Amino acid sequence: MAFIIKLTGFYLNALSFILPKYSGKKAFKIFQEVRLKAIKKREESYYLKATKFSVPLEGEDLKCYEFGSENKKTVFLIHGWQSNAGSLTLFANELQKQNYRVIGFDLPGHATNKEYHTNLYKSKIAFVKLIKQLNPQEPFSIVSHSFGSGVTAYALSELKEYTVDKVVFLSSTNKFIDIFIDYKKMLDFNERVFSQFKKLVEVYLGEKMDEIVVSKKMKRAKFNKLLIIHDKFDKVIPFKNALEVHNEISNSTLISFEKIGHYRMLWNDEVVAETVKFIGVDSN
User: Fold this and answer.
1) Residue range 96-110, pLDDT digits in tens
2) CA 183 → CA 9, 177, 198, distances in Å?
3) pTM (2 decimals)?
4) For the purposes of burial, counting CB atoms within 10 Å of the CB of 52, is it exposed (0-12), middle (13-18) or buried (19 or more)?
5) What is the pLDDT of residue 1?
6) Where are the beta strands (DSSP E) in 29-139?
7) pLDDT class for 215, splitting at 50, 70, 90?
8) Rounded to an integer, what distance in angstroms lies between the CA atom of residue 194 and that of residue 200?
9) From the CB of residue 7, how many other CB atoms can be counted at a distance below 10 Å?
10) 81 — pLDDT class (breaks 50, 70, 90)
């Protein structure tokens, strides 16, 4: 794997001397590639028990999953990068027991989708369309993991017409530019490649790289309370991201854990309990 990464970076750097724009385009496409993982046995029950429906999107429709009846309070679940809706099985099960209507979905380019490329913008559009199709009349809540937290912040910054009650980030990045820089370092891009890559990202998202910040998006969003749960030793998204978001958002609570991992946290009973308790607390 390390050899392939190194070879890819070498190829793009060499290409940038001849076709700089094309090298940036290739880098952007690689960045959007989802390494699909098989649905695990413990995630299968989620798909078997759910009522399935879809949301029309350009290209492949959004695959969605519902638990509970429509006359109950709604909680949306959003999984992370290179994962699937079933990764939030424990949350779906417990919330349903607590009499919530639970709505989950496989992010574009994930799980069983035929197209395996996606990005923050496409995922945000998908979530916005899902909410508008369901058109909840009562305040709803959201539980999101990792990349899904960025999708949530991006979507809520635009969805001013809906009332959002509780939001839970099960780990979250803050400044997306850090992810882009890490990508540059991983493939060892030269500045020609990264410059073209940066231009494409900014044109596609319609804003500057350093403006794609979760805390900034959440400041524009309308919601009652935010809970951030993050492992102090998270090796995927450093804990400093949670601190940054918490420090910027006055109506937020941060709960730190130790050594529960970035993905293992989704199967931690205490994390699930804290999440469900927070969702159930009266906002008034």
Assistant:
1) 999 999 999 999 999
2) 10, 10, 12
3) 0.94
4) exposed
5) 63
6) 51-55, 62-67, 74-78, 101-105
7) very high
8) 10
9) 11
10) very high
Q: Any residues with CB less than 8 A from the CB of 115 and at least 6 apart, and which?
A: 59, 60, 108, 109
Give residue limits of the domains in the chain.
42-51+63-175+213-280
3-state secondary structure 161-217: CCCEEEEEEECCCCEHHHHHHHHHHHHCCCHHHHHHHHHHHHHHHCCCHHHCEHHHH
Give pLDDT tens digits for 248-284.
999 999 999 999 999 999 999 999 999 999 999 775 4
The label of the residue with tokens 């017409």 reads 161
Summary mean pLDDT of the chain: 93
Tokens of 188: 């060892």
CA distance 141 to 166: 5
Give the C-alpha separation, 4 to 157, whole Å.
38
**Strand order across the beta sheet in which 74-78 lies:** 51-55, 62-67, 101-105, 74-78, 140-145, 164-170, 223-231, 252-257
- Write down the pLDDT at residue 25: 93
Nearest to 167 by CA among 93, 252, 246: 252
62 contacts 54 by C-beta, under 8 angstroms: yes
Picking from 175, 155, 148, the residue whose alpha carbon sits closest to that of residue 266 is: 148
CATH 3.40.50.1820, domain 42-51+63-175+213-280, yes or no: yes
Q: At 135, which amino acid appears? A: N
> For the segment 49-70, what is each residue's pLDDT rounded down to a tens digit?
999 999 999 989 999 999 988 7
Distance CA 24, CA 13 (A): 10
Alpha carbons 177 and 179: distance in angstroms, whole number: 5
